[in-house]
Write a structure and sequence with these properties.
37% helix; globular; alpha/beta; two-stranded antiparallel ribbon; 6 strands
Length: 223
């Protein structure tokens, strides 16, 4: 796999890329993309790191794996390509932003403007086979992305980690909570949201408040 990744991340990822498990992961992903329809597109696999550079990262949102429908995934968690119908979880994210900040519901579901501000939109698994959720889990991606969370925790300070749902909350053990902020809530999926576990937690205004508290500029959540 060609690791076309912004140079700011390389000092923290190089040792992982050189480990045997990553070579095995690379061979698996190559085989999957050669044999099946997979997402995101091959050049977009590492988009999370190319749009949010290490030095600029102030917020981390952790997803599970990419959308597996045709044309949806663009390499950023919860984000979709322009012109694609918004998936249910993204709809609920935008509804919560409406309620929290009074920002109108956007036409686009492409979250690249968030990434460009320093929000790392990180899926734990960076690839998936079409129409087969979770199909690339437990092949090595999680080890790789865990190393990224650890690197951010160790090398930076005052990053806001948004952990939505049980899967993301398990990543809390990788984060030094004495030097970073962690906000936890239910997943924005309809199942969780309908149980009252998503709406009203105001993670977007709280993130901005925390950033201002440490002298950082607030995020512009409007798309």
């Amino acid at each position: 796999m060609d690791i076309d990744i912004h140079h700011s991340w390389k000092p923290y990822l190089q040792s992982e890329i050189e480990k045997p498990y990553f070579n095995d992961l690379t061979e698996f992903v190559k085989m999957e993309y050669a044999s099946f329809k997979c997402f995101p597109k091959w050049p977009d696999i590492f988009n999370a790191f190319n749009y949010s550079h290490f030095d600029d990262t102030k917020v981390v949102i952790i997803g599970q794996d990419p959308y597996h429908g045709v044309g949806q995934a663009n390499g950023l968690c919860f984000s979709i390509n322009d012109g694609v119908s918004h998936p249910p979880s993204l709809i609920n994210i935008f509804k919560e932003i409406e309620q929290d900040l009074g920002i109108p519901y956007p036409k686009t579901g492409n979250l690249m403007p968030w990434a460009n501000q320093g929000i790392l939109l990180l899926n734990a698994t960076l690839t998936v086979r079409a129409h087969n959720a979770g199909s690339h889990q437990k092949k090595g991606w999680e080890r790789f992305t865990d190393s990224i969370i650890k690197a951010i925790s160790e090398e930076k300070t005052n990053v806001v980690f948004l952990l939505w749902g049980g899967f993301a909350k398990k990543k809390k053990k990788l984060i030094n909570t004495t030097k970073h902020f962690v906000l936890e809530t239910g997943h924005p999926s309809p199942l969780s949201a309908n149980r009252g576990c998503w709406f009203g937690h105001k993670h977007f205004s709280k993130t901005n408040s925390l950033l201002r508290q440490v002298g950082e500029s607030a995020m512009e959540w409007k798309l």
